[in-house]
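User
Here is a favour to ask of a fellow structure person. I am asking you to supply a protein in sequence and C-alpha coordinate form. Please set it down just below, with no commentary around it:

Assistant
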Amino acid sequence: LLKEGALPFERATRVYSSGVRTLLLAHEYDRALRWVETAREASREQKVAGLEAFFDALGAVVLTITGSAEDTLSRVATAADTLRRAERAELREALRALGFVHRVRGSLDAARRVYEEALALGERDATIGLALVDLAGGRFTPAAPVLEQALAAVPPEQPLLVRRLVPHVVEALIATDRI
Protein backbone atom coordinates (compact mmCIF):
# COMPACT_ATOMS: atom_id res chain seq x y z
CA LEU A 1 0.00 0.00 0.00
CA LEU A 2 2.69 2.47 0.96
CA LYS A 3 4.90 1.82 -2.07
CA GLU A 4 2.14 1.34 -4.64
CA GLY A 5 0.51 4.66 -3.87
CA ALA A 6 -2.94 3.02 -3.76
CA LEU A 7 -3.89 5.35 -0.91
CA PRO A 8 -2.79 8.90 -0.08
CA PHE A 9 0.44 8.55 1.89
CA GLU A 10 -0.90 9.93 5.19
CA ARG A 11 -3.87 7.54 5.06
CA ALA A 12 -1.65 4.59 4.16
CA THR A 13 0.59 5.29 7.16
CA ARG A 14 -2.47 5.19 9.45
CA VAL A 15 -3.39 1.84 7.93
CA TYR A 16 0.16 0.61 8.53
CA SER A 17 0.29 1.82 12.14
CA SER A 18 -3.07 0.18 12.82
CA GLY A 19 -1.78 -3.01 11.18
CA VAL A 20 1.34 -3.00 13.37
CA ARG A 21 -0.80 -2.64 16.51
CA THR A 22 -3.04 -5.51 15.36
CA LEU A 23 0.00 -7.70 14.67
CA LEU A 24 1.27 -6.92 18.18
CA LEU A 25 -2.05 -7.96 19.70
CA ALA A 26 -1.88 -11.18 17.68
CA HIS A 27 1.70 -11.82 18.90
CA GLU A 28 2.97 -11.68 15.31
CA TYR A 29 6.16 -9.84 16.24
CA ASP A 30 8.30 -10.71 13.20
CA ARG A 31 5.56 -9.54 10.85
CA ALA A 32 5.06 -6.39 12.92
CA LEU A 33 8.78 -5.59 12.58
CA ARG A 34 8.62 -6.12 8.82
CA TRP A 35 5.65 -3.74 8.59
CA VAL A 36 7.52 -1.18 10.71
CA GLU A 37 10.58 -1.39 8.49
CA THR A 38 8.50 -1.03 5.32
CA ALA A 39 6.75 2.01 6.76
CA ARG A 40 10.06 3.55 7.91
CA GLU A 41 11.53 3.09 4.43
CA ALA A 42 8.47 4.60 2.73
CA SER A 43 8.47 7.53 5.19
CA ARG A 44 12.11 8.17 4.41
CA GLU A 45 11.42 8.06 0.66
CA GLN A 46 8.45 10.42 0.98
CA LYS A 47 10.48 12.78 3.21
CA VAL A 48 7.57 13.31 5.59
CA ALA A 49 8.98 15.15 8.61
CA GLY A 50 8.88 13.03 11.74
CA LEU A 51 6.94 10.09 10.36
CA GLU A 52 9.96 7.76 10.25
CA ALA A 53 10.40 8.52 13.97
CA PHE A 54 6.83 7.43 14.64
CA PHE A 55 7.54 4.02 13.13
CA ASP A 56 10.82 3.92 15.09
CA ALA A 57 8.72 4.23 18.25
CA LEU A 58 6.46 1.36 17.16
CA GLY A 59 9.55 -0.71 16.34
CA ALA A 60 10.94 -0.03 19.81
CA VAL A 61 7.72 -1.38 21.33
CA VAL A 62 8.03 -4.59 19.32
CA LEU A 63 11.68 -4.97 20.29
CA THR A 64 10.84 -4.34 23.96
CA ILE A 65 8.15 -7.02 23.90
CA THR A 66 10.47 -9.54 22.27
CA GLY A 67 13.27 -8.86 24.74
CA SER A 68 15.72 -7.41 22.23
CA ALA A 69 19.09 -6.32 23.55
CA GLU A 70 18.73 -3.09 21.58
CA ASP A 71 18.41 0.12 23.59
CA THR A 72 14.69 0.53 22.99
CA LEU A 73 14.33 3.26 25.61
CA SER A 74 16.77 5.50 23.79
CA ARG A 75 15.17 4.68 20.44
CA VAL A 76 11.63 5.54 21.50
CA ALA A 77 12.73 8.64 23.47
CA THR A 78 14.55 9.94 20.39
CA ALA A 79 11.49 9.20 18.27
CA ALA A 80 9.24 11.14 20.67
CA ASP A 81 11.65 14.11 20.65
CA THR A 82 11.71 14.10 16.84
CA LEU A 83 7.91 14.02 16.67
CA ARG A 84 7.69 16.81 19.24
CA ARG A 85 10.03 19.02 17.17
CA ALA A 86 8.11 18.20 13.97
CA GLU A 87 4.82 18.95 15.78
CA ARG A 88 3.30 15.71 14.51
CA ALA A 89 0.04 14.37 15.94
CA GLU A 90 1.73 10.95 16.19
CA LEU A 91 3.63 12.29 19.22
CA ARG A 92 0.72 11.16 21.43
CA GLU A 93 1.15 7.54 20.40
CA ALA A 94 4.94 7.75 20.60
CA LEU A 95 4.58 9.01 24.17
CA ARG A 96 2.33 6.06 24.93
CA ALA A 97 5.05 3.80 23.51
CA LEU A 98 7.66 5.54 25.66
CA GLY A 99 5.46 5.06 28.72
CA PHE A 100 5.16 1.36 27.85
CA VAL A 101 8.94 0.93 27.62
CA HIS A 102 9.45 2.76 30.93
CA ARG A 103 6.76 0.63 32.60
CA VAL A 104 8.19 -2.64 31.30
CA ARG A 105 11.62 -1.61 32.58
CA GLY A 106 10.16 -0.79 36.01
CA SER A 107 10.60 2.99 35.79
CA LEU A 108 7.08 3.66 37.01
CA ASP A 109 7.50 7.36 37.84
CA ALA A 110 8.92 8.06 34.38
CA ALA A 111 6.13 6.00 32.79
CA ARG A 112 3.50 7.96 34.73
CA ARG A 113 4.96 11.32 33.61
CA VAL A 114 5.01 10.26 29.96
CA TYR A 115 1.48 8.79 30.03
CA GLU A 116 0.22 12.00 31.68
CA GLU A 117 1.83 14.06 28.91
CA ALA A 118 0.20 11.82 26.29
CA LEU A 119 -3.15 12.17 28.04
CA ALA A 120 -2.78 15.98 28.12
CA LEU A 121 -2.25 15.86 24.34
CA GLY A 122 -5.47 13.90 23.88
CA GLU A 123 -4.24 10.28 23.78
CA ARG A 124 -7.26 8.54 25.36
CA ASP A 125 -5.52 5.16 25.66
CA ALA A 126 -2.97 6.74 28.00
CA THR A 127 -5.51 6.20 30.81
CA ILE A 128 -4.97 2.46 30.37
CA GLY A 129 -1.23 3.01 30.58
CA LEU A 130 -1.68 4.98 33.80
CA ALA A 131 -3.86 2.20 35.23
CA LEU A 132 -1.18 -0.35 34.34
CA VAL A 133 1.42 1.82 36.11
CA ASP A 134 -0.87 1.83 39.16
CA LEU A 135 -1.21 -1.94 38.90
CA ALA A 136 2.56 -2.42 38.64
CA GLY A 137 3.05 -0.11 41.61
CA GLY A 138 0.60 -2.02 43.80
CA ARG A 139 -2.13 0.65 43.62
CA PHE A 140 -4.90 -1.74 42.67
CA THR A 141 -7.91 0.28 43.84
CA PRO A 142 -7.52 3.13 41.31
CA ALA A 143 -6.45 0.72 38.54
CA ALA A 144 -9.39 -1.68 38.75
CA PRO A 145 -12.25 0.60 37.61
CA VAL A 146 -10.22 2.12 34.77
CA LEU A 147 -9.30 -1.32 33.45
CA GLU A 148 -12.87 -2.57 33.87
CA GLN A 149 -14.20 0.42 31.91
CA ALA A 150 -11.59 -0.11 29.19
CA LEU A 151 -12.57 -3.77 28.88
CA ALA A 152 -16.28 -2.92 28.75
CA ALA A 153 -15.63 -0.36 26.01
CA VAL A 154 -13.91 -2.81 23.65
CA PRO A 155 -16.10 -3.42 20.60
CA PRO A 156 -17.03 -7.09 20.04
CA GLU A 157 -15.14 -7.13 16.75
CA GLN A 158 -11.83 -6.60 18.61
CA PRO A 159 -11.29 -9.85 20.53
CA LEU A 160 -7.51 -9.44 20.49
CA LEU A 161 -7.83 -6.29 22.57
CA VAL A 162 -10.04 -8.16 25.04
CA ARG A 163 -7.35 -10.83 25.27
CA ARG A 164 -4.79 -8.15 26.07
CA LEU A 165 -6.86 -6.49 28.81
CA VAL A 166 -8.42 -9.48 30.60
CA PRO A 167 -5.31 -10.58 32.56
CA HIS A 168 -4.81 -7.05 33.91
CA VAL A 169 -8.48 -6.70 34.86
CA VAL A 170 -8.44 -10.07 36.62
CA GLU A 171 -5.27 -9.15 38.52
CA ALA A 172 -6.79 -5.85 39.66
CA LEU A 173 -10.08 -7.47 40.69
CA ILE A 174 -8.34 -10.23 42.64
CA ALA A 175 -6.12 -7.69 44.38
CA THR A 176 -9.16 -5.63 45.40
CA ASP A 177 -11.03 -8.72 46.64
CA ARG A 178 -13.68 -8.41 43.96
CA ILE A 179 -13.12 -11.93 42.64
User: Anything to note?
Assistant: The chain has a mean pLDDT of 92. The two ends are 46 Å apart (CA to CA). Residues 144 and 163 are 16 Å apart (CA to CA). DSSP finds nine helices and no strands in the chain.
